[in-house]
Amino acid sequence: MLNKRVEEALNEQIVREDHSSQLYLAMASWADTNGYAGTSEFLYRHSDEERLHMLKMVRFVNERGGKAIIPGVEKPAQDFASMKQIFEEIQSHEQMITNKINEIVQICLEEKDFTTHNFMQWYVSEQLEEEALISKVLDKLKLAGEDKGALYMFDSDMEKMEGQQSNPNMA
Ligand code: FEO
Q1: Which of 19, 20, 84, 117, by CA, is between 20 and 30 Å from 99?
Q2: How many independent structural domains does the chain possess?
Q3: What pLDDT, in 10s, does the model give residues 29-82?
Q4: Which residue CA neighbors atom 1 of ligand 1 most closely?
Q5: What string of DSSP letters covers 49-77?
Q6: How far away, in angstroms, is 148 Cα from ligand 1 center?
């Protein structure tokens, strides 16, 4: 049986992964309707990845004899001032997620749940990749500044920008 404290922590994380997916979908929709077709593709993919993060955790909780609680949909923000604001928000959101993942890892250690500890390592590496990717995107955006031509180039680069869906162990 899954340790109760670990189960609760994982269920709280399921809510956060689901919310991340919705938030990035709202950002994708904003980019799509504001002339940033390339960036919207990047954000649509990112939203799908967050849903996969949630599903991976749902399956794990259930496989271990716990009960995954499927969250309701929380309406995310719909309007953003700029691309810069979007990616700064993603950066601070992902930093918050990394802290939460680390807290779960800590709970696993305190409860001596080494199986979940091992499972959580995938999320630890994923966060490392995501934070690196977002800071790369922010660097590119800073270079582009307010220049329309540079922003156009940025946007077409984003369409091709690899996400972090390279992990073969993704459920
Ligand atoms: Fe699933 Fe971007 O954290």
Answers
A1: 84
A2: 1
A3: 999 999 999 999 999 999 999 999 999 999 999 999 999 999 998 899 999 999
A4: 50
A5: HHHHHHHHHHHHHHHTT--PPPPPPPPPP
A6: 30
63/10 Cα distance (integer angstroms): 13
* pTM greater than 0.85 (yes/no): yes
Give the residues surrounding ligand 1 with Cβ less than 6 Å away: 17, 20, 50, 53, 94, 97, 130
Q: Tally the residues of the chain.
A: 171
Neighbours of 111 (CB within 10 A): 16
**Is 123 inside any structural domain?**
yes
Residue 167 is assigned to a structural domain of this protein = no
Give the model confidence (pLDDT) of 94-104 as tens digits: 999 999 999 99
Provide the residue range defining the domain that includes 93: 4-160
Please name the residue that has the structure tokens 């923000």. 77
